[in-house]
Structure formats: structure tokens, C-alpha cells
Amino acid sequence: MNPAPTAADHPENRMSVVAAAPVALDHLAWLEAEAIHILREVAAECARPALLFSGGKDSVVLLRLAEKAFRPARFPFPLLHIDTGHNFPEVVAFRDARAAALGERLIVRTVDDSIARGSVRLRHADDSRNAAQSVTLLEAVAELKLDACIGGARRDEEKARAKERVFSFRDDFGQWDPKAQRPELWNLYNARVHPGEHVRVFPISNWTELDVWQYIARERLALPSLYYAHPRAVVRRRGLLVPVTPLTPPAPGETVETVSVRFRTVGDITCTCPVESDAGTADEIVAETVLTDITERGATRLDDRTSDASMERRKKEGYF
Amino acid sequence: MNAPVHRPQLVDRGVLRFITAGSVDDGKSTLIGRLLHDARGVYVDQLDAVRRATRDRGGVDAAPDLSLLTDGLEAEREQGITIDVAYRYFASPVRKFIIADTPGHEQYTRNMVTAASTADAAVILIDATRVRDGELLAQTRRHSVIAHLLGIRHVVVAINKIDLVDFDAGVFDRIRDAYAALAAQIGLADVRYVPVSALAGDNVVARSARMPWYAGPTLLALLEDLPASRNDAALPLRFPVQLVIRAHGDTADDYRGYAGQVAAGVLRAGARVRVLPSGEIATVAAIDTHDGALPTASAGRSVTVRLDRDLDVSRGDVLVDADATVPLARRVEARVCWLDREPLDPRRRWWLRAGTRTVQARVERVVSRLDVRTLQTSTAVDQLGLNDIGRVVLTLQQPIVADAYDAIPATGAFVLIDATTHQTAAAGMIVAPFAADTEVA
């Protein structure tokens, strides 16, 4: 296959078209303005929202957008982290430092607490706790009486997310019913819920991974350093680079090697893999993201490979 | 996989949102798949999944079926249908695109209205093999009417499967002439035409060498050059207040600002504005953002406004130019598309949400219903059901800024939310404030 020519490459394409009117907003400014509007709608329409903050890049973007939406006032919601207990220590330290620097309240609820309560059971102690987060999250929603959870999910991440609303309704079991979503028109969001129900709100629904990195570069947002290239001990497994940690030791016969890598997503240690990279700055990552051939989750997530529909199933069960 | 095309971004034309209208048989999914694939909005692992799925469906050695790229939910894959609007993303060197992909089957009107509400443009797909004697399909007419109803300014007619009619310029010309007649009848002003083969890729992203008679741009080039969004900055000022931002500083100066997204027009520091519905006048003291104050903010921007005096301003109020004549009304006539499974029952109550204002509403009467299959309007109706489009008269508990949707879409649009079930029951577009009850500010 030949390189895809860009339509703009052809001079004759320029002849018969009307010159585009000047635009007030470039694409990042457009996305930012939309996200600020959504965050303010949550603040105005919901009684007890919380913003899910993990220390990951998408939630770091959300915090900057919240600053833009509400400063000089405090955020009208606390930050909430559902901690699997299997996070990279550096990310947890970053999370705490960021919340402290912003002067905002951070609430942490842990999968370990759910395990202690008996509401989460794992077959093996070292199993991925990614899916178990749903239980802990719904317990936190009930405990804190939340009527809205703001998250950093994007529609480009996964095909079940492509149909997600910006204000996405959850019933009193926390379930998402993809066949019975509320129609969402213009920018007129419907946040109305009955007691026990809640909405998940996704201010960066319309952003892609590239948009996120361009925004991080433009806003000079600090991130946990494992988003940038660093040497790391890994093993190659099923086409992925699996980091060697106490939770993810090498299997018999696997060779441990040190590779220059960066993480594209930062989740549960047991299912998050880095990619080979020498990109040490946000601008270099933007350049790599323009060129990349593999989706963010395809390159990095062991758990999504289980089935084509694994994200959709987890979402129906209350997952973010 | 293609070698990547990466060039420095010379110009950023912002975001263009468009819908694609047509049925699966017209090759709509294939067209979207082709657009994503050729514009490099598709990744290798997604393409691998498509190759596997193509093989699973018996297409051994076949080229990957790009229409499978747009398959979404489990139930959809099982049933071979699409249920809901899906959003797709890609970017060319000059612009970011958001496609709202609407299913072509059940509940078509509801889904297309939803997708069209945020679209700047519509790509209407016509299957060149299915147009006989210049007779367009009923669905083409239906899609075009809905696009016009929702105020979509730009239409691109993609005449597909041109390879199956031997790249015949005569077929293209006949379909273009037939559509031009339809567009004139409906009132669509800006229509462009491009002959494509979504399956083979001709004129989607890459120029076709097989249609020397067509000298115009490819589909992607057309989309790159469409005027960005609705030119809302040229309209009169509308600033719906989302919420009041208050902060208590260390000094005696408390901060009090009105946060919102400029819906239409341009907000200027130093300008006199009127607060509706109260009618009070103030001067814009500052337009604040987290990145500093702005002298002006045009439609689309999210800002925080400070006024030069203390007024009672709250969520749902609208700032307009102090000297403008703005319709405020408690009765409006509106077009609505009914979205709820439960039909419109005039005994019920709804919340009407327009801009940032929410008021209680009753349906005083149903004026007429448009049959989207026949495009006939009937006036002997007293209710609307799911997917119906009709005209109603609404009575509101409080006045709203009742702009006609065709004049100022951002403030002429509303939704009705069922007060009991909280379902979003209808999409509405104000036709006119009711004359007898109109107060002019």
C-alpha cells in the first residue's frame, strides 16, 4: 500500500473550494472550552459530585481543566481515587503531591478495604484488581452519596466507549445500559437522577490520545516521570513488554532485559505495560503519537485482550 | 500499513463535526472506515481485529472489510445492526474531525436528530446503482429534510459506488441534478458533490485516476475546507450564565464572576450588557480566564465575566447587548422531535432546558405532525410518538429568551425532560415566540 496522500497535497483541490473562514478557536482551545463548559454544568446541576483523580495523564488534564473552570474559587467537588493497591508508588506519591499543591480534598478508597469487607473476592492474591475497582467505586458512590462522578475516559479509547454519552446515566445498581441511553442533544446535558442513581461525566469525551499529549505539552503539565522514557527491566510476553516488579515477576524461561520505555497508560501494575520509546518530553511524545501504529490500550493492556467485548462487559458492571 | 504522513501543522482550522447519513447498503460504514483508514485514524491492532472478523465471516483472503471498523457493541455485532450514535475521531494536517455515525435502521429519526444537533456539516451518501431515472430514494429526502430542520449549513453529497456504474460521468450528473432540485425545494443552500468509491478509496482521501472528468476536490479536501462551525460570532451576543464563581480573598475584595460559554456573538470588556430576564443593565468590567483577562471573547469560548456593579445574576440568566431587542416569552411555538418511548401526553409536565435555564413547561397543543416518510404534514393530530416530528405550542412557567432556532441556534434549541422519569423526552427548536405574549426587552 502506498502512503496515504493527504487531499491537501493536490493543488487542484485548492482551486474550486471556498477559502475557509478564519476560526476563533484552534482545536485544543475548542476542546478546552467544551470541557470547561461540561465541568461547570456538573457543578451547577449536581448536588454531590466528585472528580476521579488517579495521577494518570487524563485525570491530570481534568485537574487543569477544573482549575480553568473554577479558579479563583475552590473546586466544588472533592477528588476521589479508587486505589487498587497495585499502583506504581511513584504515581501514588504524585497523586498526593498534586492534590496538596492544589489545596483540594482527596478521598482515597481502596480495593483492599472491599476485600476486607468481603465484597471483593480474588481467586489469587496477585490477580489484576482492575475489574475489582468497579465494586469499590460503587461502594464509594453509595457511602459518599455521590450523584455524579467525573472521569477522564475518552471515546477514542475503545469501541464500547464510542457510544458513551458525556453525561452517562447509571441506575441504582451502578449499571450502564447501552441500549437505553438518554439522547444527548446540543450542549443541553440531562443530569437529573433519582436518589441512588448517578451520572458519570466525561468532559474529555471528544479528545484523542494525541489531543491529550498536545494539551499536556501546551499547558506544560507535570506528570509522573514514568510517562517519559526511562530504562526499565522488562520481559517480552505475548507481544507486550511486561515490567518486572514484585507483583509481576518473570515467568520461568523468560529473559529479563533493560529497555528504554515509557508508559502510555498508568493503571494497575499487573496489567499495564510500557512501550519502547526514547521520548523524554511531551513534544517528543506528541511526535511519536502522530506516528504510532497501535492503539493506546492495544499496546499496553493485558486485560483488554481477553475478549473483544471485555471493556463493554466491565462498563455494564459499573467500571469507569 | 501505510508509511505515516507527518508534516508540521501549518494552520489549525479547529474542529469540524459532521454526520454521515445513508444506510448500510449505501456503503456508509465502508465510507467511514475508508476515511478513518486512509486518513490514518485507524491503528494496526484495530485493523488486525477487522482482518480476523473478515475471516470469521468467511472472507478468506479477502481485503479487510473496513465497514467492520465501526462495529460497536456486543449486541450490535450479534445482531449485525447498529443501535446508537457512535462518535469517531480523526485528524488531517489542518483540522480535527468528529464524525457522528448514525445507525440506519430502527429509531433512525431519533438518532439522526441527536447526531445532527451538534453537526456543522452532513455527508449524505447516495448509492449510484440505486438511483433510477434520476429518482432519489425516499431516505435521501428524509435525511436531507432532517439535516435542514436541525440547521446544518453545509451538505456534501457523496455519490458512492461510482465504480459499479463504470465511472460514468452521466450517472454523476443526473444524480447531482436530481439532488440540486431537492436541495432547492427543501432550502439547503450550500451543497457540494463528489463521486467516490468507498470500497476502493477513489476520491475519499486519495484522488482517483479513474474519473478524469471530475476535477473537484476529494471528500476529505471538501471537509477540510468547509467554513469552521456555524459562524456564531457574527450573531447578536448571547451569554447564558452557567454558575456564579465566588471566592473570598485575603483582602477585602471578594471575587464574584459569572461563568459561561459565549453561545453567540462577541462579549467585549467595557461593553454595556443587559441581564435577562430581569432587564437590568451593567458594564462588563472584565472577561476573566485562568490564563488572564481577555479584551473580547467570541462564540465558543468559556470565560468568567465580572460586571461593574452588584446585580442579582444567577444561573439561567442571559447577558445580551444592552441596546438589543430580544424576545422574552412564556409561550412559544416550536418544532419538536419526540424521543421518548412514551408518547407526548399533554397532561404531563416537563422541564424545558434552554441554554442554562430550566423552567417548567406544558404542551398547550399539538399543531401538526410531519410524516418523515412521506414528508406530508397533517394538522388533525393531538399527540406525537417516538420518532415523530411535529409543531407544538408550549406554555412556560417563567419567561425565556425565545430566539428562533433558525436565527440563533444556541439559544433557540431546547430539550424537554420528563419531570417524573427524568428521561430526555424531546428535542425542540423554537419557531417563534408567541406574538400575543411576547415582551420585548
Supply database-style keywords.
heterodimer; A: 320 residues; alpha/beta; Rossmann fold; 2 domains; 6-stranded mixed sheet; 4-stranded antiparallel sheet; 9 helices; B: 441 residues; alpha+beta; Elongation Factor Tu (Ef-tu), domain 3; 3 domains; 8 helices; 34% strand; globular; disordered N terminus; disordered C terminus
Q: Can you offer a commentary on this structure?
A:
The complex is a heterodimer of chains A (about 325) and B (about 450). Chain A folds into 2 domains: about 190 residues, 3-Layer(aba) Sandwich (Rossmann fold), CATH 3.40.50.620; about 80 residues, no CATH class. Chain A is an alpha/beta fold and about 325 residues long. The radius of gyration of chain A is 21 Å and the shape is globular. In chain A, the strands form 2 sheets. Chain A has a 6-stranded mixed sheet with strand order 3-2-1-4-6-5, sandwiched between helices. In chain A, strands 8-7-9-10 form a 4-stranded antiparallel sheet, with no helix packed on it. Chain B is α+β, with helices and mostly antiparallel strands. Chain B has 3 domains: about 220 residues, Rossmann fold, CATH 3.40.50.300; about 90 residues, Elongation Factor Tu (Ef-tu), domain 3 (Beta Barrel), CATH 2.40.30; about 110 residues, Elongation Factor Tu (Ef-tu), domain 3, CATH 2.40.30.10. Helices cover about 20% and strands about 35% of the residues of chain B. In chain B, the strands form 4 sheets. Chain B has a 7-stranded antiparallel sheet, with no helix packed on it. The N and C termini of chain B lie far apart (about 60 Å). The N terminus and C terminus of chain B are likely disordered.
